[in-house]
Amino acid sequence: MLKYLLLLCNYRLHMTCKGICTRYKAQKPVGTGRYASGQKRCQICEIFIKWEGLWCPCCGYRLRTKPRNLKYKAKLRARVEADQLEAVAVKAAEVEEIELEPIVVKPAKAKTAKVAKAKTAKVAKAKTAKVAKAKTAKVAKVAKVTVAPVAI
Questions:
Q1: Domain extents for the chain?
Q2: What is the pLDDT of residue 143?
Q3: What residues contact 86, with CB distance under 8 A and at least 6 apart?
């Protein structure tokens, strides 16, 4: 237990700002909130940064991606829902544009010629197979007749 506490304290001591975060410092966006624009906040460095990961590149502490205040949480939720509705509307408009485009039908002549060739090839194969079977059947009958024993 004591070993665990020492390890935890040692871990906390290494979580200090090293100044790396200033390279990723984010400017306050105009017209939208910080979290809505993709910025994240590090509580140790006390700075908003533009960073893709979940952990601060400077101190290794977990970055906040949502506001803590209830009022700002509601604003962010409303903003996200509005963005989702807008995305759905854009997709619906794209689908309508695709449906309105004329459908070009290619001539089916080449296809029917290929089908006809394939059918004639199949019929020819079937006929040759039937002829070969018939010939072997006749040869078998002849062989049976010649093999019959003669009574004296």
A1: 15-82, 109-143
A2: 45
A3: none
